[in-house]
Amino acid sequence: MHRHPPPVALRPEGRPSTRYRHTSRPRPLPHRQRGAIALFMTVIILLAVTLTVIFTARTASMEQRMSANEVRAKQAANAAQAGLERAVAYVQGGGIDVNQLFLADLDANGAGMIYRARLWDPDPNAAPPQCPENPAAMGTNNPDSTRSTLIYSCGWSDDLSARKVAMIRTEAGPSLGFPPTNPVISKGSTLVNGNARVFNLFNNLTVWAGGELDLNGNPGNTFVRAPEYPVPSLENLTDLDLLPGKPANCQATGKYICTSNKSVIGHDIIDYDLSLSSLSGQDFFRNFMGMNPTDYKKMLLLLYRQIQLLI
């Protein structure tokens, strides 16, 4: 039996009422289209994951390289500082060899540090020192003496991939204008008491005083080197190893001669010298330092500032 659709109700204006209008539903997508969309979304997600993994790996690799470079840089800096300190200690200890090379290398187990340190000409017009890639290629430009020198040190990492230079300018302080010949010099009176003893290894004078000398201590003695021992040389400091040992008292025989005690004033003592007692404080200082105290302090300050500017 054929069914007819229900009649459409008309509004007063003659238009059909929507109350009875049929609405259409979206047609479902074919299976192929749904599979393509799922595949596209999967590819996008995989691409995002891949990029994230690559970025993370590159960041980790970069951080690892930066950390390794920092370790090598610290190795080189520490090695350069060690070489510098060794060379400075040599100069401060009175070393005079301007050709001296200070070096260190890794041991058989790969431990230690690598550095080379030298004394360099401090002339500002001279070519500045450089750190070569190979420690064996260290250059030279020796100064005239160790009293005024530029000390430079090169340090390398254990694999020689990093190197660092450290430099310092050193100047010897102003020497004595007129070095004294006596261990003890006084513009006025001098008192030697208690366990004080005066030794002179270089000549037969021990005390030079402008006033009275009082030796009332125990032992309170002065000693000079026995004549059978040679005078030590300041240029060869190893001569000091050959000097005799100090005697326990004035009665001890051996390598020193006891010249003065509380009972006897020997020929090694000069007292009541008017050439000393009549000097002013400024003149007394100038006689031995070669300049007055004010100029001496200015020179020290100038040398200090020069060294600070070069570090």
How does this structure look, described?
This protein has helices at residues 31-92, 274-277, 281-289, 293-310, and strands at 102-104, 114-120, 148-156, 163-171, 184-186, 190-192, 197-200, 207-209, 213-215, 221-225, 256-260, 269-270. It starts with 30 loop residues before the first helix and ends with a helix. The chain has a four-stranded antiparallel β-sheet with strand order 1-2-3-4. Residues 304-311 have low confidence and may be disordered. With 311 residues, it is of the alpha/beta class. Among the domains are: 73-174, no CATH class; 184-290, no CATH class. 30% of the residues lie in helices and 18% in strands.
Q: Low-confidence spans: pLDDT under 50, at least 5 residues?
A: 304-311
Largest sheet: 4 strands, antiparallel
Strand order of the largest sheet: 1-2-3-4
Helix fraction, binned, reads 25-40%
Helix count equals: 4
Instruction: Tell me, briefly, the overall form.
Output: elongated
Mean pLDDT: 77
| Distance linking N and C termini | 114 Å
Helices and strands: which structural class? alpha/beta
Proportion of beta-strand residues: 15-25%
> Using DSSP, what is the number of strands?
12
Rg from alpha-carbon coordinates: 45 Å
Order of helices and strands: HEEEEEEEEEEEEHHH
